[in-house]
Amino acid sequence: METLYNAENERARCGACAIRHRAVCGALEREELAALSRISHQRSFAAGQVIMSDQDPVDFFANVISGVVKLTKTLPDGRQQIVGLQFAPDFLGRAFSPAHTYFAEAAGDVELCCFPRNSFEALLQSSPGLEHRLFEQALQELDAAREWMVVLGRKTAQEKIASFLCLIARRSLVAPCPRGAVSAQPTFELPVSRADMADFLGLTIETVSRQITRLRTKHLIRLCDHQHFMVPDLAALNELAGHDLPALH
Q1: Type and span of the H or E element at 80
Q2: DSSP labels, 17-75
Q3: DSSP letters of 163-198?
């Protein structure tokens, strides 16, 4: 009787998760979900805190519940390059790999649902649905990386900034403007600094600031404050970025 009660509690906990249906665990059957819940635990990371290091062995994987994770690649001479941003419900880590290929840091306050490596990989081998969902997400990340190659290699500075802001608008939760301002227009918090934007886009900080000012002058964006952006016309910003509008939905 106690075992049944615990299993029901575990399923209920995962069933109440806001990201479950979009995360890799959304493909699990009831008993598989209970098994995953038994090995999972939530962890919070403050802004700037290291989540995974490319110098440490892999000991856990995670779903991003909230916040943004910044992925960085370290070169042999110590230089670093931001190679990606992960949002809810992205999967953090690479299954069946003995080492991390990147450095993961909390861009802001981050909440993760973590799974010990050995237990998760064992469950992955016995759960075709979970394995398939993880494969699908890996292919989506590959497609996104290829699209970002086009942004970096072919687009102008203004198109790069517009593409980046469209990416954040698409992936971030829409939040109200600070200080009590109310608006039905898309509003989001920029999860990284201007310096990180420049690094991610292959631009200088000065160019990033200049292009943001130009987008404001064109009334394509508004700033609620230094980090909170409002987009009066998302379709127009998307067009400037050179994206197909359905990609934002």
Answers
A1: strand 80-86
A2: -TTTTTSGGGG--HHHHHHHHHH-EEEEE-TT-EEE-TTSB--EEEEEEES-EEEEEE-
A3: HHHHHHHHHSPP-PPSTT---SS-EEE--S-HHHHH
Element (H, E) at 9: helix 2-15
Pairing, β 50-52 against β 103-106: antiparallel
CA distances for 22 relative to 17, 27, 77, 127, angstroms: 10, 9, 39, 17
What type of residue is 23?
A: A
Q: What mean pLDDT do residues 144-172 have?
A: 89
Q: Is the pTM of this model over 0.85?
A: no
In the chain, the domains with their CATH numbers are 2-147 (2.60.120.10), 155-248 (1.10.10.10)
